[in-house]
Amino acid sequence: xxxxxxxxxxxxxxxxxxxxxxxxxxxxxxxxxxxxxxxxxxxxxxxxxxxxxxxxxxxxxxxxxxxxxxxxxxxxxxxxxxxxxxxxxxxxxxxxxxxxxxxxxxxxxxxxxxxxxxxxxxxxxxxxxxxx
Length: 132
What we know:
Arc Repressor Mutant, subunit A; about 10% strand; mainly alpha; single chain; three-stranded antiparallel sheet
């Protein structure tokens, strides 16, 4: 694992993970191509674009408050944001995908149905669960 990948793993596993962040990562992990904000909102928030994009702020704090990550890249350390035909699109960086492949507890949650995850209470994953 590279230093960059180790930093991403630390960002993902250093604290409890709420359902919004689990659903965001699950949807992007399962998508093999960039997804529009609209499609992301449909996939994780039943079409509520505002609620969907509001997940990115706390996720950015998760990344920026990780000591191993310098600067303030926010969610962009893990999720690539691009613009195409006037629409914003999101996708996981390949290095983030490789890190997630090495986090069994997160992959376990990805096996669950999205509707079930949306109904879950917070946090979905407690920090100590990442260590097991």
